[in-house]
Every structure is written in C-alpha cells, then in structure tokens.
Amino acid sequence: MLNEELIIDLYRVGAIKFGRFKLTSGIESPFYIDLRLAITYPGIYKRLVKLMAESLSAFNIDVVTGIETASIPWASMIAYELNKGIVYVRKEVKEHGTAKLIEGDLKTGMRVAVIDDVITTGNSIIRAIRIVRDHGGDVVVAAVFIDREQGGLNAIRREGINAFALFSVIDMIDVLVNNGLVSNELRNSVIEYLVKNRVSTGA
C-alpha cells in the first residue's frame, strides 16, 4: 500500500521519532514529528504534496496559505501542484517595509486553504484563520499532514472551518508496529500519553 510505504519512509529518514522530547508547550512527549526533514527528500516531499493537493482539489480554493515558517515549503508546493497562488501568515508584524501580517496578494472574498505540517492544539492554525478572515479571506478548509490527536482538529472545527489531516499519529504507529519497526509496548505508551494530554480547547 502506497501510504504505508510513505509512512515507513518518513520513519526511516527520522521524520517520526520516539524518545523523550519537550514540546513548545513545555509538555514532554514520547514521540516527535519533524516534517522539516521530509522536504530534504524529493521522493517523500513529492508524494506528500500530491496527496494533499488531491485532498484539497474538491474545495474549489483560490489560494493556499502557509504559516511562518515550517509550513511555507509545503504550502508553496501544494499551490504549485494545484496551479493556485500562495500567501503566508507571519508570526508577528515585521518592523520595516509594509509591516504586514500576511505576505502576498490576498483579495477580499478569496477562498482560502490554510496549511500546516503537524497539529497539536490547533492554536497556530486558528490564529492564521482569524488573521486571514480579518484581511477579507474566506477560509474554507484547514489541512495538515499529521494530526497528533490531541484535540487540534476539533478546535478548528469549532471555528466553523472544515479541517482534516492526511495521517493520524496512531494510524502511523500502527503501520510501524505491523511492519515490525516499533513495539506494541511503545504504541501503548503513546496512546497513554495522548489520553492524558488531549487538549480541551484550541482557542
């Protein structure tokens, strides 16, 4: 199965890691998803971009929006694949030039897909959605490659936005278990962690 091969390839290049990792929230996690590594490998990069572009093709979007910085390479290639434009949301207003929060030509009423690589709480995507809306964009979908299954997609849906992920972390681990790459014990420890650390709100 193609997607199983893709998950295994992500694991083998180190984009899916197991151990002890401190997240930006300060919480310690037994796994880490690093899709910044994947863009170094054209075969993986292309397959992920194609999968996402195919998933977004039903939404009749005008522009793809990335979030500074990790999702910009993904949003750029997805937009290219779909023959759409790209804009991106900055982390903060730059102190020079035009002092924009959104780079690119976002026009009022444009149908927008907001893209990110991995979702945990959904906070960064929700912030981007609100900024795009404030600038006149019509966000019709938010999409990520991997859902850490800690409540982020539901938080986005509470904003009235369609939201989906190509892969969930448990589905990915199941593929790795079934192929003898990680143990059932590790899978169970990840599930235990997710149950204890699921967020209740993304706002």
UniProtKB/TrEMBL annotation:
InterPro entries: OPRT (IPR023031), Or_phspho_trans_dom (IPR004467), PRTase-like (IPR029057), PRTase_dom (IPR000836). Signal peptide: none annotated. Keywords: Glycosyltransferase, Magnesium, Pyrimidine biosynthesis, Transferase. Pfam families: Pribosyltran. One of its GO terms (molecular function) is magnesium ion binding. Its EC number is 2.4.2.10. This is Orotate phosphoribosyltransferase.
